[in-house]
Amino acid sequence: MAETPILEPCIPLPIAERTLIDVTEKAKDWAIMHGAAMRSKTNFSSDTLNFAPFILMPSSFPRKEFEKAKNLQTIINQLMHNVAHDEEFLTTTLAETVKVDEFTANLFNVYKKVLANGFGQAYSLGLLRSDYLAHMLEDNSVKQVEINTIASSFGGISTHMMPLQSFVMSELGHADKIKYMPENTALSGLCGGMIKAWEVYAQPKAVILFVIEDISYNICDQRFHEFYIREQRPDIKVLRRTLTEVHKEGKLGPNKELLLGEYEVAVIYFRAGYEPLHYHSQNEWDARYMMECSRAIKCPSIHYHLAGTKKVQQALAQPEMLERFISDPEKIKAVGQIFTGLYSLDDSEAGNASYEMALKEPERFVLKPQREGGGNNVYGADIPDALRKMSRVERAAWILMDLIQPPISKGYMIRPGGKSPPEVVDLVSELGIFGVILGDVDNVICNYQAGHMLRTKLSTANEGGVAAGLGALDSPYLL
Ligand code: ADP
Ligand code: MG
Ligand code: MG
């Protein structure tokens, strides 16, 4: 492997010990006091918060690539919208996968049942997040890691990262550098989408429902959305219910309204439902199906959810596939450039060739199942064993992807219970760009880019889930 380049830090490192201790203590309190916080997993209490892991100063990121990713977002929104509405494409693309992946099959069954029964609502709301790593082997150009169409999180907390790190930069006497840190409009952008969908539903008394996990560790991120909506629109109520509660309390009215007790639901925002563990029994699947049949505008609707699977991402990266969904050749070219190699592992000639390729040079790849939420992938040297344990047909539940090799930045990662003073460590950052799209099959009401998030992990970790404990929230310092 080529030697990893190191990006220039925003200020010279290390910071003198006394200054570092002082500024870290202040930054932690700033984070808690501004809601850059989460519930503890190890010491859970719904009465307390810990600050969310964060990077003390903004991590360097190539400006040109940041701008490129932002400018592409509306095209990606439209692409995902078109994919979600292409029944034939979703069906053929997922055909082999649903035979062996039970979770995707369950989602697909919901989709087929709703198709047969008729959609209660033609409009869908997409709050998307397209994730990127800069790839050092291609001049640090951004490559798409994945696109999330369900529960795209951290828009709320991320909005507070630039102010947190600006505070730190000022404390350190570098206020002049704040101009290299872009503003972030993720929270207002994402909530604006939900409010717009609520208006489209046009029922002044109806509420927005957040479908949540049994325990919400990432509570602040969700509350930011809820409180922002209430602040902008004192007339809109937000309810929070688990899938189990929706099953118990929910029913459809005479015009397919989703009714929860005394409330009619205008918009359903899923912050749960993206992993098998969220469905404890058939009840939760029944609840999902009922919601999909309802008149409420779903974020995402089931077809948007399926459009966000890794298998669909892999299919879209095949030559000429984008032409099915995008007509402008310039746009096709621009989107094509952010794809890295993605390979099917179906039991086909191409699939078997990728299998052989993975066994031969595993360190070039990442192996991914149809799952969300981090911690599910297999990397490098672990790939051959994982693949050999699968039957030919079982491999169709997975895709293979080129390993993206990002440049390193240096900085301090601040975690609850972490060392004081913190040490300078090697980091890599993943950029997420949020997008909002609202429309039906042939009419898009709004489509915009909605801010960003930067999540940074130790360069030695394969994955950087913030909740999982390896990653930290961050914001970019544009070089
Ligand atoms: P999830 O839906 O679970 O978040 P991802 O595809 O985003 O799945 O993978 C999780 C993490 O794994 C990413 O955040 C990134 O850190 C790492 N990762 C995924 N794909 C690649 C890749 N092609 N190259 C390098 N790292 C990757
Ligand atoms: Mg994901
Ligand atoms: Mg991800």
Task: Tell me the span between the first and last alpha carbons.
Answer: 25 Å
Q: Tell me the count of domains.
A: 2
> Kindly state the mean pLDDT as a whole number?
97
Small-molecule components bound = adenosine-5'-diphosphate, magnesium ion
The strand count comes to 21
Beta strand %: 15-25%
Write down the overall geometry: globular
Helix content: 25-40%
Low-confidence blocks of residues: none
Radius of gyration, whole Å: 22 Å
Biggest sheet record: 7 strands, antiparallel
Secondary-structure-based class equals: alpha+beta
What's the total helix number? 15
How do the strands and helices of this protein lay out in sequence?
Layout: H1 17-33, E1 37-38, E2 50-51, E3 54-55, E4 59-61, H2 63-84, H3 87-100, H4 102-117, E5 124-135, E6 141-148, H5 155-158, H6 161-171, H7 186-201, E7 207-212, H8 219-232, E8 238-242, H9 243-249, E9 250-252, E10 258-260, E11 263-270, H10 282-293, E12 297-299, H11 302-307, H12 310-316, H13 329-338, E13 342-344, H14 349-360, E14 365-369, E15 378-379, H15 383-388, E16 398-402, E17 409-414, E18 424-440, E19 443-458, E20 471-474, E21 476-478
Parallel strand pairs: 4-21, 7-8, 7-11, 11-12
Antiparallel strand pairs: 1-2, 3-17, 5-6, 5-18, 9-10, 10-11, 13-16, 14-15, 14-16, 17-18, 18-19, 19-20
Bound molecules: adenosine-5'-diphosphate (ADP) and magnesium ion (2 copies).
